[in-house]
């Protein structure tokens, strides 16, 4: 994107239910949004950005950071209000593990 040409070291674009995109000088990738039962999206973007910063500070890779932030934002949307649904770290990891298990089961059923 143009922002990299302007001197940014990395660019992340969020697009709600359409997921998010990451670019830096060496790589780019797409992170789909998790399909969840949405109750309220208030604060989802702020939650995503806070979780993304947390992931970076914990030295997660760019892909792990986007995956983590996407999961935190998705879980937030399962509860009404801007703060009520923000999950704990452990709840987020549990959600990611469950999603991974579901994906593996889905893939196995087609083989």
Account of the 3D structure:
With 111 residues, this protein is α+β, with helices and mostly antiparallel strands. The protein has four helices and three strands. It has a three-stranded antiparallel sheet with strand order 1-2-3, covered by helices on one side. Strand 2 and strand 3 form a beta hairpin. The relative contact order is 0.14.
Give a short summary of the structure.
By secondary structure, the chain is an alpha+beta fold.
| Number of distinct beta strands | 3
Bulk shape: globular
- Label the structural class: alpha+beta
Strand portion? 5-15%
Biggest sheet: strand arrangement: 1-2-3
Order of helices and strands: HEEEHHH
Query: How many distinct helices?
Result: 4
Average pLDDT: 90
State the share of residues found in helices, binned by percent: 40-55%
C-alpha termini separation? 38 Å
| Low-pLDDT sequence parts | 104-111
Radius of gyration: 15 Å
**Major sheet:** 3 strands, antiparallel
């Amino acid at each position: 994107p143009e922002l990299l040409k302007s001197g940014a070291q990395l660019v992340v674009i969020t697009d709600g239910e359409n997921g998010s995109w990451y670019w830096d000088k060496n790589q780019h990738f797409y992170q789909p949004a998790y399909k969840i039962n949405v109750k309220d999206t208030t604060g989802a973007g702020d939650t995503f950005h806070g979780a993304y910063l947390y992931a970076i500070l914990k030295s997660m890779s760019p892909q792990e950071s986007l995956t983590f932030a996407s999961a935190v934002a998705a879980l937030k949307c399962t509860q009404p209000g801007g703060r009520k649904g923000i999950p704990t770290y452990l709840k987020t990891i549990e959600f990611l593990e469950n999603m991974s298990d579901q994906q593996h089961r889905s893939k196995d059923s087609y083989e």
